[in-house]
């Protein structure tokens, strides 16, 4: 039997937490931590949070359904960044330590990932995903606390007024469902999925979808905070304690550009065509259009050119390959219009940067193709019928084509590409399930059985 003293200590723990620096379990990180952190804690906290964000990325690419994704993320949180509720029977000191670690680690990664646009984009994406996961898993009281802390300024629509405001659209929602009016720009993902009714520029968001609104507001505020961090970062100067740690953290994301282990010069201009069968769909398309049109516009030349560079096509062989491919023009036209850009990609011109091949994330999210363009991601940018036709040309079974096309239609572009790779590899006995595809060069290396590759810093 518990002693009276033990019971009092158990009851007191939640009360101590409620009056502490971290009274609630979940946070939108509005206030920077005002406390000292040892250099050991600084690095350990940040690495643990980074493990969670990378686990979320991997779950989005590899999970088989929403339940599997939630399980994977939950396991990573339990292992690296646990956050227990005030109702748990843990001592107040442990609850405070967990919340301190969560709070501090978020702000450390803000610094580490503010350095470049690509790093900021990666951090924003997965911090928002983490917040949405925690919000979904929280109880009603914790959700209300988080919404109050976020100050979302939601306009509640009373049930009696719904019919007058929404007309027939009121029937879209359940009779007992709380409803809020917001500007439609704040819930574009819900609009895209037809999850809300729109009237005169307003979206009517049910209580069950408030997580999307919370994530949007969090993303906007965090984006502004990262921009401020980026301006403040140079003030750290050459701090020998912090700067190396921050650079190490940002260099550990899965968003790093992929570099094949294949040595430069391993591929010749003459051998490119024979390798095309192992290209991912995006590069197959570019290669085929180059052969058909004897030309590619700038976006296609960059995407295919850096991919071939990653395969081991050195600069001289690249000049020979592209000159032959652009056979309809004169040597003078090629030298004046295209040779400089090829040399630039290899660091022989301009600022002498050694450019890496494009990642899937970059291809999917930046520079969408316009009329006459052939770059981009087929799973993102092809019409459904065109995508299915391309998959059939790659000799995939009908069942695989239907599954992959459905994944692409649902917006799971890298998952669809990974399934494409799996479908190709499963033709060969003994092939293990491949890693999630994050780069066209990785697809080629896995498909062709090349040696494992190394990742390089994003540029």
The number of domains: 3
Order of helix and strand elements from N to C terminus: HHHHHHEHEHEEHHEHHHHHHHHHHHE
Helix content: 55-70%
Number of helices: 21
Task: Name the poorly predicted regions.
Answer: 1-12, 450-459
SS-derived structural category: mainly alpha
Radius of gyration: 26 Å
Kindly state the number of beta strands. 6
How would a textbook summarize the main sheet? 4 strands, antiparallel
N→C terminal distance: 63 Å
Overall 3D form: globular
Strands side by side in the biggest sheet = 1-2-4-3
Strand % is: under 5%
Question: What average pLDDT do the residues reach?
Answer: 84
Protein name: DNA primase subunit pri2
EC number: 3.1.3.41
Enzyme class: hydrolase
Keywords: Hydrolase
Overview of this protein structure:
By secondary structure, the protein is mostly helical. The chain has 3 domains: 4-149 and 216-250, Transcription Elongation Factor S-II, Chain A (Up-down Bundle), CATH 1.20.930; 152-210, no CATH class; 258-456. Helices cover 57% and strands 5% of the residues. The protein has helices spanning 4-18, 39-62, 66-80, 92-112, 117-137, 140-150, 162-166, 188-192, 210-232, 242-250, 272-275, 281-293, 298-311, 315-325, 331-345, 360-365, 378-381, 384-393, 398-409, 413-425, 440-448; strands at residues 155-156, 179-183, 197-199, 202-206, 257-259, 454-456. The strands form 2 sheets. Strands 1-2-4-3 form a 4-stranded antiparallel β-sheet, with no helix packed on it. A two-stranded antiparallel sheet has the order 5-6. A hairpin with a 2-residue loop joins strand 3 and strand 4 (202-206). Helix 1 (4-18) packs parallel to helix 4 (92-112), helix 2 packs antiparallel against helix 3 and helix 2 packs across helix 4 (92-112). The longest helix is centred in the first third of the chain and has 24 residues, at 39-62. The model is unreliable at 1-12 and 450-459 (pLDDT under 50). This is DNA primase subunit pri2. Keywords: Hydrolase. It comes from Coemansia nantahalensis. It is an enzyme of class 3 (hydrolase). Its EC number is 3.1.3.41.
């Amino acid at each position: 039997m518990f002693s009276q003293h033990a019971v009092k200590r158990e009851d007191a723990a939640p009360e101590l937490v409620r009056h502490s620096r971290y009274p609630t379990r979940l946070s939108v990180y509005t206030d920077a931590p005002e406390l000292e952190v040892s250099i050991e804690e600084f690095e350990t906290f940040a690495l643990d949070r980074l493990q969670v964000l990378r686990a979320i990325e991997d779950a989005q690419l590899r999970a088989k359904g929403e339940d599997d994704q939630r399980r994977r993320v939950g396991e990573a949180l339990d292992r690296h960044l646990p956050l227990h509720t005030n109702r748990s029977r843990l001592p107040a000191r442990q609850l405070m330590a967990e919340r301190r670690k969560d709070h501090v680690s978020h702000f450390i990664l803000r610094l580490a990932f503010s350095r470049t646009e690509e790093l900021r984009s990666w951090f924003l994406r997965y911090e928002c995903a983490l917040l949405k996961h925690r919000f979904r898993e929280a109880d009603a009281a914790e959700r209300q606390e988080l919404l109050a802390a976020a100050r979302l300024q939601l306009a509640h629509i009373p049930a009696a007024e719904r019919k007058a405001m929404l007309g027939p659209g009121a029937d879209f929602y359940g009779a007992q469902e709380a409803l809020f009016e917001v500007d439609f720009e704040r819930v574009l993902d819900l609009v895209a999925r037809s999850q809300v009714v729109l009237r005169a520029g307003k979206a009517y968001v049910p209580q069950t979808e408030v997580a999307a609104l919370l994530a949007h507001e969090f993303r906007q505020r965090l984006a502004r905070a990262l921009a401020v961090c980026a301006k403040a970062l140079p003030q750290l100067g050459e701090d020998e304690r912090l700067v190396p740690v921050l650079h190490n953290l940002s260099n550990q994301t899965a968003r790093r550009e992929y570099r094949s282990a294949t040595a430069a010069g391993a591929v010749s201009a003459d051998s490119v065509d024979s390798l095309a069968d192992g290209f991912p769909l995006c590069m197959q398309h570019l290669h085929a259009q180059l052969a058909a049109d004897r030309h590619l516009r700038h976006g296609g030349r960059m995407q295919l050119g850096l991919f071939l560079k990653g395969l081991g096509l050195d600069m001289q062989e690249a000049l020979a390959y592209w000159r032959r491919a652009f056979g309809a023009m004169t040597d003078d036209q090629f030298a004046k219009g295209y040779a400089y850009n090829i040399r630039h990609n290899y660091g022989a011109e301009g600022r002498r940067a050694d450019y890496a091949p494009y990642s899937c994330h970059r291809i999917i999210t930046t520079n969408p193709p316009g009329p006459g363009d052939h770059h981009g991601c087929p799973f993102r940018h092809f019409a459904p019928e065109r995508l299915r036709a391309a998959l059939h040309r790659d000799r995939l079974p009908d069942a695989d084509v239907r599954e992959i096309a459905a994944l692409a239609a649902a917006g799971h572009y890298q998952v669809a590409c990974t399934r494409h790779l799996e479908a190709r590899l499963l033709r060969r006995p003994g092939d293990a399930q491949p890693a999630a595809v994050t780069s066209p060069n990785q697809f080629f290396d896995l498909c062709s059985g090349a040696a494992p590759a190394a990742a390089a810093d994003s540029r």
